[in-house]
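Let us work through a complete example step by step.
Step 1: write down the sequence.
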Amino acid sequence: MALLGKYLSFLWKSTSEHGVHSPFVYNLVTQCFYNSQKIPSKNYPKGISEKKGQFILRLLGYFSPQRIKIYSTQKDFYNLFPKTLIDNTSEEKKDMIFVSDTNNFPSLEEVITQMHNDSVLVWVSPHSPENEPTVKKLTENKTFSVIIDTFSFALFFIRKEQSREVFFIRT
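Step 2: predict the structure and record it as tokens.
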């Protein structure tokens, strides 16, 4: 399906904060997704608009991660993140994992072992033709209990205290 068709389908099934009945997701949507405060930055990577860059920066502010893993072949993608938070080793669990393309994305099992109960996996452009098959596998995996699709991003959470649900949120 062409990207426009995918977007129209997304709009049809998506909701705002009013259609969310999970307190965790409701707080994330109202306090982070819909927060209009601008975060100063001039380091938006190639292919990331200011709006998408601001969304990523709001996620960083909301979750306050201590360790971030980035899977991207775009070197300028790393410029958006504080250098002190980037931990591309695989020894410790990560608080946040960003994926901008599938070129160096490891196996699903390896990514899951890098996550803990409060981690978030953020996939940039999940509906692009090269990303869609992998994102579909992630969505079908029962390890992830909360999945949020904003069309521009897909967020995957392992939350043992929450029953499985997929949310389509307009941002």
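Step 3: interpret the result. Residues 44 and 53 are 6 Å apart (CA to CA).
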